[in-house]
Amino acid sequence: MTQIEEKVIDSTFEFSSPVTGKSPELQALFDFIALGASERDRDRILPYNIVELIRRSRLGALRIPVAEGGSGSTARELFEVVIRLGDADPNVAHIVRNHFSVTERILRSERTQRNRRWLKAVADGAIIGLASTELEVKRSGGGQVVNTKLTPDGDGYRLNGTKYYSTGSLYADLIFVRVLVPDGTRAFVLIPTNREGIDLVDDWDGFGQRLTGTGTTTFTNVHVEADEVIFETDTDKDNLPYNIVPQLFLTAINAGIIRSVLRDATALVRTRPRTFYHAVTEQAADDPILQQTVGQIAANAFAAEVIVLAAADALDRLPTAQAQGEESETAAALVASLSAAKAKLIVDDLALRSATLLFEVGGASTTKKSSNFDRHWRNARTLSSHNPNHFKARAIGDYEINGTPLPQRGFF
């Protein structure tokens, strides 16, 4: 963090309570994040200072009830914020994706002393990362574990193993790790990232989402307290909210990218000093073709946001359905899962098309590295590559034709 950045942060952002989606401080924070987003992406500047601001704002406590120190936001309100954060900087939005997914899981668990302690840490600003994926397993995202293991050690355990694609953990205070316990079953541990034996490696080299800390994490004889282990006493249900949230989160970030594309496209046309050879007007801002192109991007941004929030509304209906019994809960969970899958198919496509349309309004000069406009497509393409769309579309089609439930997807 530079001295200038420290001065701006210290003098501008004061958060007396957890921010909400309507907080004026939150919009000021997002505006500040957006200012440096392109430069950070182009020069690969890891956003530690931005994550510190998010920590201080207690943005991560959006979903925690007010009585427990959070903002008490609905799922719709959460995803409204995710879209805005994705607009400001999709890398930063992706960094906190696993935080909200893990927090959702804790919120839906029994309020034990341990869980209350973790929720208080989040309410106080702690950020949670995730270490779940192992390259040795045959299927990604299925929650399989083969080499990250707990072994008994006195009253606690020792943790050893290696995880990959540990998005957000580089910046996190706590890390949520999927492990094998001695009897061969799976469990999770939630432990501080600064504990001895944890090595967070910044080795993610994807062409998009370059700053998310999606690297390798190794655990070497790490001490784990007994009450830091979450044993799986029940298999994950196919469509529980904490399984839907991670995917819809990525889709919401792509919706935010379209908003950012729209902002760049509008600015390009307004400030363009000359126009194209075949243009029918002297001023780019008066050109009907450019107006049409920007209008299409604007429509894409509107549609993407509406679709994401419709899927979020399906999540918000789950508590009422759960109170009505298992049958109602299962039906509502299926609707929520289908909604998230359908949203991904459409929004991913709109994001990629919109990122391409940006070059139609700017011409060859927009391909300069200094402008870094290609980041929109690179980031949207990287986000879209999580759970490829053809598998989603097939599963949706199988359900529509044959009534086959959507396949179980492990937490990640």
Mean pLDDT: 90
Biggest beta sheet attributes? 4 strands, mixed
Provide a count of the helices. Answer: 14
Low-confidence stretches: 1-5, 235-239
Give the N-terminus to C-terminus distance in angstroms.
30 Å
- H/E series: HHHHHHHHEEEEEEEEHHHHHH
Strand adjacency order, main sheet: 1-4-5-8
Q: Decide which structural class fits the backbone.
A: alpha+beta
Radius of gyration: 22 Å
What is the overall shape?
Answer: globular
Strand content: 5-15%
Number of strands: 8
The level of helicity is: 40-55%
Give a topology summary.
Blueprint: H1 3-12, H2 24-35, H3 37-43, H4 48-57, H5 75-88, H6 90-95, H7 97-107, H8 113-123, E1 128-131, E2 149-153, E3 156-163, E4 174-180, E5 186-192, E6 198-201, E7 216-224, E8 229-231, H9 241-271, H10 288-316, H11 318-323, H12 326-362, H13 374-384, H14 389-402
Helix pairs in contact: 2-5, 5-9, 5-10, 7-9, 9-10, 9-12, 9-13, 10-12, 12-13, 12-14
Kindly describe this structure.
This protein is α+β, with helices and mostly antiparallel strands and 412 residues long. It is 51% helix and 11% strand. The protein has 14 helices and eight strands. It has helices at 3-12, 24-35, 37-43, 48-57, 75-88, 90-95, 97-107, 113-123, 241-271, 288-316, 318-323, 326-362, 374-384, 389-402; strands at residues 128-131, 149-153, 156-163, 174-180, 186-192, 198-201, 216-224, 229-231. The protein has a four-stranded mixed β-sheet, with helices on one face. Strands 2-3-7-6 form a four-stranded antiparallel β-sheet, with no helix packed on it. Helix 2 packs parallel to helix 5 (75-88) and helix 10 (288-316) runs antiparallel to helix 12 (326-362). The two termini are 30 Å apart.
